[in-house]
Amino acid sequence: MKVIFLNRSHSGSLSIELGRWSRAFLSLCCLGLPLGLITGGFLAGQEAGERSVRDASLDSMADQLKQQADVLAGMRDQAELKLQALTLNLAGLQARMTRLDALGEHLTVMADLEEGEFDFGQPPALGGPLALGSSIDFSSPDIAVEIDSFAASLVEGEYQLEILESLLNHRMLAKQSWLSGRPIEKGWISSYFGQRTDPFSGQMAMHNGLDFAGKEGSDVISVAGGVVTWAGARPGYGEMVELSHGDGFVTRYGHNKENLVVPGELVKKGQTIALMGSSGRSTGAHVHYEVYKNGRPVDPASYVHRTPR
What we know:
Blueprint: E1 2-6, E2 13-17, H1 20-110, H2 143-177, E3 188-191, E4 194-197, E5 204-207, E6 210-213, E7 219-221, E8 226-234, E9 238-246, E10 249-259, E11 266-267, E12 272-276, E13 286-293, E14 296-298, H3 301-304
Antiparallel strand pairs: 1-2, 3-6, 4-5, 6-13, 7-12, 8-9, 8-11, 9-10, 10-12, 10-13, 13-14
Helix pairs in contact: 1-2
């Protein structure tokens, strides 16, 4: 094959003789170039399409990740709020438990229980075998539900302990206001309630109390808890202490050497309220003990021998 090249002025020409391999190479170039361009364009378009699809997929994944991040952030905020609420609930329950323990210890003292019988500073002892056919649930409990259940138990426990405290207070108050026993620790009865010969006039006269003789300066004690309504000199009684015990009961302790209480003072059963003496209309050291019920004198002997509570 011969190829002739002409210049622009057609004044000369150049001819080249192409062999078989040259012709094949030239044909390949003429045919391969368009095919190459077409193939390159196709590949470039396919790559651009894949890039576009890939970019769209990445954008979608980025949006999904952002949504998931927002959801996680919301869940984290809710978890923090719930944790704060649980922390506050636990703090309140701990305060109530402390109050419950203090109340339990107070009631233990009030009930005069043996030391160690109820130790509110230690957790309760629990135990027991697993029942046949039952299984242990290892699933995580709902903390909020558990706290609500525990709070309900605390409310019930507080209510029961408050009732017990009220009953114990009532029992102690009844015990304190219960008239019983003698107004002295040592001594003897030197004169009884009723008609007797007056030691000063020699005539028969009513004696409204019991006389307990003893050593001068010995203790005069209250036969019941009450409030001091009189503490001072009184005609016939000398130095006298009068106590009001409620329910219409009043007791008097006369001829004292010295009174140890003042009006308005609250005294307990068995408390020393005066010292035995012989003040007033008296022939020797003793205490004149009277009991009044609803304003009328009654025989103190029945209360002296009364069974204490």
